[in-house]
Amino acid sequence: LFAHCQIPCGIYSDAMQIVQIKEDLRTIDKSITMIKKLSENSDPQALNQTNRWINTKDQHAQKIQDVISQYFLTQRVKQNSKNYENELITLHQLLVSVMKCKQSVDKENVKNSVKLIDNFSELYFDKHGLDHLNKLQTKS
Question: Which of 19, 101, 106, 121 has the highest CB neighbour count under 10 A?
Answer without folding.
Answer: 101
